[in-house]
Amino acid sequence: MAAKILIVTGDAAESLEVLYPYQRLREEGYEVHIAAPTRKKLQFVVHDFEPGFDTYTEKPGYTWPADLAFAEVDPGAYAALVIPGGRAPEYLRNDLELRKILKSFFDADKPVAQICHGPLLTAAVDSLSGRRVTAYPALELDMQAAGATFQDAEAVVDGTLVSARAWPDHSAWMREFLKVLRSRVPVD
Hints:
The chain is α/β, with parallel strands linked by helices and 188 residues long. Helix content is 31%, strand content 27%. The protein is built from six helices and eleven strands. The protein has helices at 15-28, 88-92, 96-107, 119-124, 140-145, 170-184; strands at 4-8, 31-36, 41-48, 57-65, 68-69, 80-83, 112-115, 132-133, 149-150, 155-158, 161-164. The strands form three sheets. It has a seven-stranded mixed β-sheet, with helices on both faces. It has a two-stranded antiparallel ribbon with strand order 3-4. Helix 5 links the parallel strand 8 and strand 9 (149-150). The radius of gyration is 15 Å and the shape is globular. 45% of the residues are buried. The model has no long low-confidence stretch (mean pLDDT 97). This is DJ-1/PfpI family protein. It comes from Streptomyces triticiradicis. Residues 4-179 form the DJ-1/PfpI domain.
């Protein structure tokens, strides 16, 4: 039986940051489940850059069904966790069930991949203190406030935590995360 990986997300997550790891990890032979506040069809978004804008723009993205609600997740059944970005982490960090899930993964030192605004979730459970991370560059001060050392790089590995800035860094992010996964949770 293939090791299971959990992706935690919600509405307004960045489409590419959910679907790229979902497909890439399945391609490697892992079983991947998506959890959200409730079982429903999620509405993702596309963040892109337009000439003349000081920040990214947001457009409607793909829809995708959540396999289970946060309250249904047994963290012990999963070998690793993926935390996509987009706007979803901004409100998901207030979800008590999700915070329990996140804390469980960090307490067990399981592999965690986070990208873009995803580190807002790990900061919410005080799991960044003393770590090296990257995130969407606008979050540098948030990462420092959470006790992390921010590095502006495609991918930063700190033990079992692998972080990336945003979807343009997918290749480096998944390459590094797969190294951690293969060493800790090889595919059967």
